Backbone:
């Protein structure tokens, strides 16, 4: 294997299970690779808001002049998006070399695609002369490969029901899994306004210094600006984050708490915070592409994130017709997700996705029809997100709104050509 594409194909075929949680196999490979970090490490777990939190942290620290390394997953279009070094996606050739290092170190140990690629990205960042490492947990926390690296500051965002077959059937169980990223004597920022009791109990058990929203840090705002207060520091007159959606203030508040916690090691000016929040970008998170019709992209793929999406869509104002392109994994609570958006959607465009775990377009249509007998809303099925979007554009009037949401594969599927080409090809301005 020489190219990144070849290595990724190798990883996909290496382990019999796509998801095989646990650290027993990956830990000895990490040890053989000598993976250690002397710089501050921020680990981010949660059901929703992880990617936004990582992006805001990265933007602030870049504005402060620090050399950042960020690991997030999954990617939208290209695998290289998962690793950002100093604000830029990693080079494919450099990643291929990192995969080679993992292959040499694993000595026949079977690793999943996620485990193999996580080790490769961590190795690449260990060679990059960074000032701060920002790591997004892939699934859960306690047994996720990212949890191999001890955190200096943990952040736990919202906690809700998702991946219940793996993490537990209620918020208490899921909270315990997320709490696995905590370390004794280290701070943990909890930005969920109503964290499960299990999470708080675990923080006390391990001796983590818990910063809790509403107790240790607060935020408030009006239509024009917002403010934040923590343990001994305040920021007033802040512009709203460039990432759209009311829920982003929860994420931004947790970010500022982490920045304050790490201030002794990573001093940050108020101007760097303001600039970072104003300039942060993250594709696919309530991303609005102007045009006629307007296009909204959102990777909302569980009931909690879809509820936030519905609120954000409602706040956009009136549109004569909303066309929704939707594709999602089969283990999600699909009926609840569609029911939450049903009052806002006039036409559904269900799509197949290129993974075995996904619901087929036909299955989505059947679920929708079963929940909406005799509804005036229409629905159709398509082989790919691009085909579904093309059909929506053909049917939409200039004053309408097109929504593409669900799996990363759904949003990524329409972004494969890039936004400028997408806009020029499909949307009239």
Residues:
């Amino acid at each position: 294997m020489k190219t990144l594409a070849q290595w990724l194909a190798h990883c996909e075929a290496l382990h019999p299970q796509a998801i095989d949680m646990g650290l027993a196999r990956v830990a000895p490979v990490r040890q053989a690779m000598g993976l250690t970090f002397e710089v501050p490490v921020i680990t981010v777990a949660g059901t929703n808001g992880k990617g936004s939190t990582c992006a805001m942290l990265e933007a602030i620290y870049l504005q402060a002049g620090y050399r950042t390394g960020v690991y997030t997953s999954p990617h939208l279009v290209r695998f290289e998006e998962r690793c950002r070094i100093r604000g830029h996606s990693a080079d494919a050739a450099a990643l291929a070399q990192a995969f080679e290092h993992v292959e040499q170190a694993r000595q026949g140990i079977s690793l999943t695609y996620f485990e193999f690629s996580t080790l490769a990205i961590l190795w690449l960042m260990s060679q990059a002369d960074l000032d701060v490492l920002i790591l997004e947990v892939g699934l859960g926390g306690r047994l996720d490969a990212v949890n191999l690296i001890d955190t200096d500051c943990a952040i736990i965002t919202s906690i809700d029901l998702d991946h219940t077959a793996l993490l537990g059937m209620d918020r208490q169980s899921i909270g315990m899994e997320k709490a696995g990223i905590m370390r004794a004597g280290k701070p943990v920022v909890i930005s969920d306004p109503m964290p499960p009791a299990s999470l708080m109990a675990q923080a006390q058990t391990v001796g983590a210094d818990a910063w809790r929203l509403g107790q240790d840090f607060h935020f408030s705002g009006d239509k024009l600006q917002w403010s934040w207060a923590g343990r001994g520091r305040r920021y007033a007159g802040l512009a709203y984050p460039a990432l759209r959606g009311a829920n982003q203030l929860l994420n931004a508040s947790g970010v500022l708490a982490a920045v304050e916690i790490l201030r002794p090691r990573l001093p940050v000016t108020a101007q760097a915070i303001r600039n970072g929040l104003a300039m942060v970008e993250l594709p696919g998170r309530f991303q609005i592409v102007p045009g006629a019709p307007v296009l909204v992209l959102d990777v909302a793929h569980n009931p909690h994130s879809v509820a936030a999406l519905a609120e954000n869509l409602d706040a956009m104002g009136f549109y004569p017709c909303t066309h929704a392109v939707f594709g999602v994994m089969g283990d999600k609570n699909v009926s609840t997700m569609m029911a939450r958006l049903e009052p806002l959607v006039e036409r559904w465009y269900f799509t197949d996705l290129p993974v075995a775990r996904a619901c087929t377009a036909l299955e989505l249509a059947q679920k929708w029809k079963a929940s909406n007998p005799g509804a005036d809303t229409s629905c159709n099925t398509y082989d790919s997100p691009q085909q579904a979007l093309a059909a929506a554009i053909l049917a939409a009037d200039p004053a309408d709104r097109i929504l593409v949401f669900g799996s990363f594969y759904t949003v990524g599927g329409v972004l494969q050509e890039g936004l400028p080409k997408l806009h020029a090809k499909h949307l009239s301005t």
